[in-house]
Amino acid sequence: MKKQMLRFSRASLIYHTRHGETVAAENLSFTVDEGEFVAIIGPSGCGKTTLLSLAAGLLKPSAGEVETFGSCGYMLQKDELFPWRTIEKNIFLPLEIKRQNTAENRERARALAVKYGLGDFLQSYPSELSGGMRQRAALIRTLATDPDILLLDEPFSALDYQTRLNVCDDVAAIIRSEGKTALLITHDISEAISLADRVLVLTKRPAHVAFTHEMDFGDVKKPLSRREMPQFSGWFEKLWKELNQ
Amino acid sequence: MKHREVKELCSHEHMLYLKKRKQRQIVVWTLRLALLVLFFGAWELITTVLGWVDPFFMSSPSRIAKTIAGLYEEGTLFYHIGVTLLETVIGFVIAVVVGCVVALALWWSETLRKVLEPYIVVLNALPKIALGPIIIIWFGTGSEAIIFMTVLVGVIVATLHMLAAFMETDRNKILLLRSMGANKWQILYKLVIPSSLASFISMLKVAVGMSWIGSIMGEYIVSRAGLGYLIVYGGQVFKLDLVMSATLILCILAAGMYFLVVALEKVLVKNAES
């Protein structure tokens, strides 16, 4: 059995506001194994981001348990690069925050940026980069502290369609080649199918896991190639129906 | 070869564009100057030259020049300018510093913010001139009273302006830092302060105006020197020349201070815009 990196055990979360309380998640149970790429899809407003906040430890579950076995790196919808910092300084940001800003770590982060095509842009400011390049820089920033688990919150949704497909390919390749465990949250069914080893389907609020599917694309990991395979449309239809139940 | 031709064509067109831009700028500046000359010319014309209006009521550019020259010969011109300028600048600096510190404290503590909110609203709405007698009794009739008035006028605006800027910090960027395990201090100096730079500059511009209002208002209430003093004194003895002269100097000083802030903005905001 593979090593588990993330485990939700009957986790529930209740939000309190002045107008009452909302059960955002109820009895949420699933695991993510080491090196696995898991995608979670759900109807809009089902509390997908809540789920990632739980995984990142930003929220504590009201009941049940959320355990992570390793450090987390969080990637958001927009790149959220700081406009007053150069790309290099942006990539060093998590090192500064975690007080790991050593020459060795900086060198490793810089090498990562060079390896994935950001070498010429290290001294540029975010405004000088295209949306795709910015999102790539955001991924390198997430990888700078060498996290064990990547939490991806719809990281492509702010990009236009063409860029989106390319960046999706890019990011998948980088995550696979760095051997990272990843948990992707998205509302885009085809994105989930093309990226993940396993897809979980959430219900409406209160969210819990309704279906789990192992993707059967064999060794094909490249998202664009997966989109061209015959079983792709089958999965799309199936997940579409499950989402709308 | 063809590529080069296109390039040359482009650069030629670009030159034309730059030239046009420059011409437009020259036109704007010429018109600005013309407006100024027209204003003072018309003023001079209807008072001294044509005599339609008695310069006793309206003064005139030539009389203003004479008055300023007179003040200079008396040796009091720079004394009055210096007094007002010093009061304004000291009041401005104190208001900005205190405003930023208070805004930071209010950003830091939600409880403090909630508790103080109604008091700040009341202080903001209160016409500060109503506090004139209190200020005189507490601070006497020297520059301290005027500086206090300047601070009072500027500090609330500075505080509210900076607090709004701090509170507007991108929530997703805060989430990002928190996901990295950042504490509140780190969020403050890595994100909140640098992202408020543009607002800081716009606050300085507002505060410049406020501190001139404060210092002149202070000098109206209580003073023995300064441009505000000259204006009040000139009004009391019906010397409109003196009133107009001091007002004109005030315009120049206020504009100068504003442009200093604009220059500071150019230095600070070079790479900060997104």
Element layout with pairings:
The complex is a heterodimer of chains A (245) and B (274).
Chain A: E1 4-17, E2 20-33, E3 37-41, H1 48-56, E4 63-68, E5 72-75, H2 87-97, H3 103-115, H4 131-143, E6 149-153, H5 161-177, E7 181-186, H6 189-195, E8 198-202, E9 209-214, H7 223-228, H8 231-243
Parallel strand pairs in A: 3-7, 3-8, 5-6, 6-7
Antiparallel strand pairs in A: 1-2, 1-4, 8-9
Helix pairs in contact in A: 2-3, 2-4, 4-5, 6-8
Chain B: H1 2-49, H2 55-58, H3 61-74, H4 77-108, H5 110-125, H6 132-139, H7 143-167, H8 171-179, H9 184-195, H10 197-221, H11 227-236, H12 240-268
Helix pairs in contact in B: 3-12, 4-5, 4-7, 4-10, 4-11, 6-7, 7-10, 10-11, 10-12, 11-12
Please report the two chains with the greatest interface, counting residues with C-beta closer than 8 angstroms to the partner's C-beta: A-B, 22 and 21 residues
Measured as a percent range, the helix fraction of chain A is: 25-40%
Q: H/E order of the elements of chain A?
A: EEEHEEHHHEHEHEEHH
Number of structurally distinct domains of chain B: 2
Order of adjacent strands in the largest pleated sheet of chain A: 5-6-7-3-8-9
> Please, how many helices of chain A?
8
Radius of gyration of chain A using CA atoms only: 18 Å
Helix fraction of chain B by DSSP (H/I, runs of at least 4): over 70%
Question: What do the pLDDT scores of chain B average to?
Answer: 91
Mean pLDDT of chain A: 89
Strand segment count of chain B = 0
β-strand percent of chain A reads 25-35%
* Radius of gyration of chain B over all CA atoms, rounded: 25 Å
Given as residue ranges, the uncertain stretches of chain B (5+ residues, pLDDT < 50) are none
Order of helices and strands of chain B: HHHHHHHHHHHH
List the quaternary state of the chains: heterodimer
Shape of chain B from CA axes?
flat
Shape of chain A: globular
